[in-house]
Amino acid sequence: MSFSLIPSTFCGAQVHLGVTGSIAAYKALDLLRTLLKAGCQVSVTLTSAGQRFATPDSFRALGADPVYAGMFDPAATAFPHLEPGQRAKCLIIAPATANILAKLTHGLADDLLSCQALAFPGPIILAPAMNPVMWAAPATRRNWAQAKELGFVCIEPVLGEMACGDTGQGRLPSTDILAAQVLRQCSPQDLAGKKILVTLGPTQEYWDRVRYLSNPSSGKMGAAIAMAAWLRGAEVTVVRGPVALELPGLFPEHNVTSAQEMLAACLDLAPSQDIVCMTAAVADFAPVPVDSVKVKKSTLPKSGLSIPCKPVPDILAQMGKNKRPQQVFIGFAAESTTLHEEAQRKLQAKNLDLILANRIDQEGSGFASDTNEVVLYAKNGRQETWPCLPKTEIAWRLWDFLPCL
Ligand code: CTP
């Protein structure tokens, strides 16, 4: 992820990382770095096979502490098999081999990592990586089904080309996905069971085949809100206008281009949601299209071009018409003047429970910036002014604010 979607709330969260004997073990070094960057403290255990692919010193050099290399390591303390369970909030085994799956699902504890897993009271994430034939083997299928039944957090390997040249399901998922799963286990799950729709990005309203009307929305605010909701346990769906921003693929995304397409997707999804958060910067007008081909300059008047436009539907207002009493609708107001009056007007007119107003003409706030400065106006009269903060922090605070609505 180029724009980090991770808020800084994980400072000091303790995570234990288990690394077993797969060629994907080198990717565990990247996972370690990502978790450290997110503010976690990470300890590591490598099995003896894991150490054939990545060394304990590599993990130490990158900042893991402690790094366990075996049950009877002379440098180890008396109870290395119990320590991660006493200290860490979450244990992730990545990559996990077919062997460790078999051991953990049967309660075997014949090396340090399997003992630590058995003595771990918190959530254990399993992220297998292996040859597709091993992954498809009946014994592995049975063990994987059993791992789910036993309450392990199970992350499926992904399709792709393997180190051996075979293609199929068996690759370790991306570091972003693994890190996000760890951070979810370290987050409060106060949004568990909530269905949340987040819209983000601009819309593009085409005039001919190649030219369109739009705005510079980057989708960062919406992406941060969607990510924070997912980390806190929500079932998130995203409707995204055309933005370059990459989301880690943790929740379904509906890609749309125009306001009409966004309206159709939102009207379809909104009835099943508990919360709708509309951060998308909808282009308010759509040119009346002249043609589906590229218009040649030579055919246009020399005196200059006037493009007739029609207003696009107000998506939030349309969804608001069918809003159920238990649903919570959140909007954003992009303002350059009269912030207070306009935010209050939009709160009423669009039948919202909360609106976050931000100045788009200020340094460090608005479109494409990594930070934002917002004022919150709730339907119940509550109002808060927040300082300039990273968008990831605003997203986290927004969900903290939810019980105040
Ligand atoms: N919005 C929407 N559909 C539109 C325009 C806006 O759903 N056609 C939503 C935005 O996603 C945002 C809220 O309405 O959550 C306010 O958008 P904003 O652009 O600030 O206000 P507008 O209603 O477009 O009014 P104006 O442009 O005059 O400020």
Describe the model:
With 405 residues, this protein is an alpha/beta fold. The protein has 2 domains: 173 residues, Flavin prenyltransferase-like (Rossmann fold, 3-Layer(aba) Sandwich), CATH 3.40.50; 210 residues, CoaB-like (Rossmann fold). 29% of the residues lie in helices and 23% in strands. The strands form 6 sheets. Strands 13-12-9-14-17-18-20-21 form an 8-stranded mixed sheet, sandwiched between helices. Strands 3-2-1-4-5-6 form a 6-stranded parallel sheet, sandwiched between helices. The longest helix has 12 residues. The chain is elongated. Bound molecules: cytidine-5'-triphosphate (CTP). Cytidine-5'-triphosphate (CTP) binds next to helix 11 and strand 17. The site of cytidine-5'-triphosphate has 15 residues, from helix 11 and strand 17.
Give me a quick take on this structure.
With 405 residues, the protein is of the alpha/beta class.
